[in-house]
Amino acid sequence: HSLLLSFFLQAVGILILALVPSLPNLIIGVFIAGVGVSFYSGTFEAIIYDSLKQINKESVYTKVVSNINAISLFAIAICSIIGGFMYKMWPPLPTLSSAIGYIIAFIFCLFLTEPKIDSEKFTIRNSIYQVKHAMFELFKSKNIVRQTFLLLSIGIIVVIADEMINAFLGIEFGFGIEEQGIFWAFVLLISSLSSRLTPWLKKAFKEYQAVLIIGTMLAFTLIISPLSGKYLGGLSLIIRSSLQIIYLNFVSIGINSVTESKYRTTTLSVFNMLRNIPYVFFAYFIGALSEVYSAKNIASWMGVLLLLFLIIQIIVLPGKKLNMRKLKSSN
Description:
Elements: H1 2-19, H2 23-40, H3 43-54, H4 61-89, H5 93-109, H6 124-138, H7 142-172, H8 177-194, H9 198-204, H10 207-223, H11 230-258, H12 264-293, H13 295-316
Helix pairs in contact: 1-2, 1-5, 3-12, 4-8, 4-11, 6-12, 7-10, 7-11, 7-12, 7-13, 8-11, 10-11, 10-13, 12-13
């Protein structure tokens, strides 16, 4: 039901943007679509995990979620290229096509069978209780607290970079308007391929080590921004976007593996909310600082901050490494 409501609200919101363009309708449309996104957050991953768990195949979740994210990014890359041609034909056409896509998703969703796993049905009455229990799921043991703080430390920086800094850097690195369209489509294509590295990383390293490596590499792609021109800067954006999708895969794997089925959707949603809160509060100031000091310098400071977050994580874990594979058994 959450997915149905999500696709319906996003379709309505985007249709308003496409067919009734004005500032008041822009605000209304974005708000409705935003509410739809909030219902999607966490729901899709939870359904996938529970569906696999129902048939005792949750062990292949890493491979499944990596492939799904790869296909999604590939589709976005293709659509971003097609959208440019649609816009030239008729400016509202890309937005209208997006709304039609959500309508099709809504129809397909009608044929989904919900996994027969113990789950809490969403209602307004029990929503506060679910959020409280989701917070408990994220902080219910020492090991899970460590996992949550590690994933949040990286996630906060990732959200800020993805939502605004990367776009600013694309301009400061010297990409023109037409070049950016092609470049970002290429970035998405590479990221879709990178998503499939997740199962290999999970086998090659403990999840804790893999996440630390990803976070460290993300930090350095930000730190080198002031020294980067068009080519090195473009490469750093490609690497960062690829690492970001792998990080998101590990977030889904880590939280799903230690959360009760009936609270899984809400827990993922609450984690995403916590990860986005700093961006919501500081986006204006970060944008203002980027104008004064340049996005390259702001990106570098963010990289240093991320590195400090990771060093703190290591210091907090003296003498032993956190193994996310054992988190579930520690509760």
